[in-house]
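Morning!

This is the sequence you dropped in the shared folder:
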Amino acid sequence: MIVSIKKFFENQLKFQPTETPALKNHRLQLASAALMIELLKTDRHIDERETSAVKRLLLNTFSLTNEELDQLIKLSEREAAEAISLYEFTSLINEAYSYEDKLLLVENLWSLALADDHLDKYEEQLIRKTADLIYLSHSDFIKTKLKVRDNLKAGTSDN
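The structure's back. Tokens below.
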């Protein structure tokens, strides 16, 4: 994880005990967006299909503003060399999100990883590590992968 993105998370994703459902949902969207951007860089070959997929997922599925999207992308590109542990970030997800929210996050990570029709071993490793850190069962990890793969083969998408 990038130091600047971590600071962005801490400012934008801080859990508020009295938060509204809309604010909680927005925090999940931002958290998911950042993990997707990390996944995008994992295989060291950013394909145009992956770039388009991440933008489509972030803008459509998560209702991010163009400003938030631009800020996350710029932060991740500018400081790609300063990686830190995913644990600090995934602990934020574990504090406040339901199991269903976690399933959606992993499903979207699979959608991004498979966007270029090639699953790199490092992409799968990052998704597996994320799923483990957010306590997603192994069977759900596999089910989300198969669901996304089958939707892509059928030419459909839930996102």
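Headline: The chain has a mean pLDDT of 78.

More detail when I'm at my desk.
O.
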